[in-house]
């Protein structure tokens, strides 16, 4: 079988591992269900194209094992019998439609064309056919992937079937490594800079692949497989801008900075959490917490709570759970070594009720950073909270900042590193509105010689309080 042979001849160890794991899922499904009870959801995109050829290879190996022919079967002797579902849409790109029908002809697909919405179409199909399991090209990072496993029953309210996800743990890089290694035809849009294809109304070429050519008025784009950061594959999808903080009705962006009149809006609040037994034991002085508080004050944020926690998953989860809904933003720092603490990420995941899932793109950053120390097919430090994680890229950072909804996880271990991460965060804020930037808090120190006269001192403090009603007065001896 040409797919299986191409992978065996490849020098890409990780691709081989991904392929073998995916084939195992395919063959497991074919052992659990008859051919009449399974179907493939195909939409002409890169992920479903990978899935189609994994199914072809998996079915070939499944039939070979059943026939005990020890590899005598040829591709032509094993027709592909798995029912293929295509949801045809008037808003699909013509290139997608053409590629889908050409693929069906080339590989002899038994294709059911459905012109209803996904849910209604499935209900009608499952009512008419004995389908119990559907192969899907879902990958972690897709909007629909949250909470799914390789075998996942359909969601409540949907017709009952088993979702089979052979490439759930594949990355963008893995998808293109497979297509190119096996020399598989794919939709022509990907050669024109499209990296994630939706409808004609919400999809454009990825600007990160644009080729600057002053001699031509028409923009040109490099192929999708040249996108260096797979986390940005959906950068060509139109999306509505939204602020990550909880407060409503902010003014528009001006000069790249979101500004708020602090006299007309309630103060935005942050919680600062440090994680580290070494801080609690007193073996290391906590310089990051106070520095982070000063930085937040410099952009007009109030710090409502600071805490230092043990290196314990439950402690982190409880603290994040306690403050994530009552504060606009949480900042967490701490952990051993140059990278984030696994305890911190696990605690954040537990607080949001999600699992830690492997992130191949983040693993690539770790491999570049720690080189030979990152061995094996999976780096446990590259596990991130599933479905809620956003990596914040900046050219000055060797590892992206990690944002989980309104929780920022900082990897800094000293003030110098914190300064660098904070500066990058503020630069990103000015370009994409990650935080709301307000007028900084002003701190004034006053001395008095009224300490021996308690009544006069109280009167002076009361007068200051009336003059600065929004201020806070603290006493220092």
UniProtKB/TrEMBL annotation:
SMART domains: MoCF_biosynth. Residues 271-418 form the MoaB/Mog domain. SUPFAM superfamilies: Adenine nucleotide alpha hydrolases-like, Molybdenum cofactor biosynthesis proteins. The keyword Nucleotidyltransferase applies. It catalyses: FMN + ATP + H(+) = FAD + diphosphate. Pfam families: MoCF_biosynth, PAPS_reduct. It is an enzyme of class 2 (transferase). The keyword Ribonucleoprotein does not apply. GO terms for biological process: FAD biosynthetic process. Keywords: ATP-binding, FAD, Flavoprotein, FMN, Nucleotide-binding, Nucleotidyltransferase, Transferase. GO terms for molecular function: ATP binding; FMN adenylyltransferase activity. Pathway: Cofactor biosynthesis; FAD biosynthesis; FAD from FMN: step 1/1. Its EC number is 2.7.7.2. InterPro entries: MoaB/Mog-like_dom_sf (IPR036425), MoaB/Mog_dom (IPR001453), PAPS_reduct_dom (IPR002500), Rossmann-like_a/b/a_fold (IPR014729). This is FAD synthase. It comes from Vitis vinifera (Grape). The lineage of its organism: Eukaryota, Viridiplantae, Streptophyta, Embryophyta, Tracheophyta.
